[in-house]
Structures are given as structure tokens and as C-alpha cells.
Amino acid sequence: MTGHTSFKGSWLGFWLLHLGAEVKGLSLAANTTPALFEQLDLAQNLSHHIGDIREAELVARLIASWQPNVIFHLAAQ
């Protein structure tokens, strides 16, 4: 998932975890205080990487490593 530290990304990650999914994410650090990502303690429950989706090599490396079945793209500005 991209954007997993955002408000909507946090809710989607939380929901997917409760459905039993293995969730991994790439996102910028949460930029609000308090951040829902931190309030839900998602860093302890999903594999997350802080980074920028505009770094193509990073994205390619993570996708190759994670081998996801589905990608939810929620990163945006």
C-alpha cells in the first residue's frame, strides 16, 4: 500500500489487518499531530517503509521484495 500513514491509508491498513491480511506500506512520515497511524499503533502491526514514491528504484525494489498480490495506491498530494 502506498500512503499508509495518511488518514485514509491508516484506516485501510487497520481494516485489512483485522481481515487477516499481511499489510506492507510505503509512505512519507505522518504529517499531522496526532496522526491516526500512530494512534492506531500501526507501526507495530504492519511492515512499513518511510520513503517517497517518486523514487522509482525504491518502489521497484520494495515491490520485488514484497511480491504483493494487490497494491492499493493512496499516496497523493
What are the salient characteristics of this protein?
alpha+beta; two-stranded parallel sheet; 2 strands
Task: Describe the secondary structure blueprint for this structure.
Blueprint lengths: L6 H12 L5 E4 L8 H4 L7 E4 L5 H11 L11
Parallel strand pairs: 1-2
Distance between the termini: 16 Å
Strand order within the widest sheet? 1-2
Shape: globular
The overall pLDDT, averaged over residues, is: 95
Quick summary of this structure?
With 77 residues, the chain is α+β, with helices and mostly antiparallel strands. 35% of the residues lie in helices and 10% in strands.
Structure description:
By secondary structure, the chain is α+β, with helices and mostly antiparallel strands. 35% of the residues lie in helices and 10% in strands. The protein contains 3 helices and 2 strands, in the order αβαβα. It has helices at 7-18, 36-39, 56-66; strands at residues 24-27, 47-50. The chain is globular and about 30 Å long. The two termini are 16 Å apart.
